[in-house]
Design brief:
The chain is α+β, with helices and mostly antiparallel strands. The chain contains 3 helices and 9 strands; from the N terminus they run αββαββββββαβ. It has one domain: Jelly Rolls (Sandwich). The protein has a 7-stranded mixed beta sheet with strand order 6-5-8-3-2-1-9. The longest helix has 24 residues. The relative contact order is 0.21.
Length: about 160
């Protein structure tokens, strides 16, 4: 079972609530939604700045046509319910790492260094609730591994 110290749990909850408020404001304005994604890995709490893709259209476009993705940033593809996500790299111009999360926010699969333009579907082989796309090499640099847990945003 995943537990954080009492103060850490409070900090995570406040951080998540602030992120959800940002998403609601951004949705109302019709602009891209960015929020912090917190991942607990090897006793460390990592925070990434992610763009949320929580509609079919945003998930389909993903990071297509982007030239670069800075360290510590990414795109979180998010589904309301767990789905058999299969992603490809069509029109994606940079290599990516794909991190797959189950409905509890646990990393169930990491696909490293997906090649730009590759049409081969990448999947976790099981239903997932979210996929984090980050620059190739970031998953290894951050020390992410199966079993790590993220505080996934709540969809309304």
């Amino acid at each position: 079972m995943f537990l954080l110290a009492k103060t850490s749990r409070r900090a995570v909850l406040l951080f998540m609530l602030a992120g959800m408020a940002q998403v609601r404001r951004a949705r109302a304005l019709g602009v891209a939604r960015f929020l912090p994604l917190m991942i607990y890995s090897s006793g460390r709490l990592l925070t990434l700045r992610v763009e949320v893709a929580d509609t079919r259209e945003l998930r389909m476009r993903g990071l297509m046509f982007r030239q670069r993705l800075p360290r510590g940033q990414g795109m979180l593809l998010l589904w309301r319910r767990p789905s058999m996500a299969a992603l490809w790299m069509k029109n994606t111009r940079m290599p990516l790492d794909m991190v797959f999360f189950d409905s509890g926010g646990i990393i169930v699969h990491i696909h490293e260094n997906a090649r730009p333009g590759d049409l081969t579907p990448v999947s976790a082989g099981r239903p997932v609730r979210a996929v984090l796309e980050i620059a190739a090499g970031e998953a290894r640099r951050l020390g992410l591994k199966k079993g790590d847990r993220a505080a996934l945003p709540v969809m309304r």
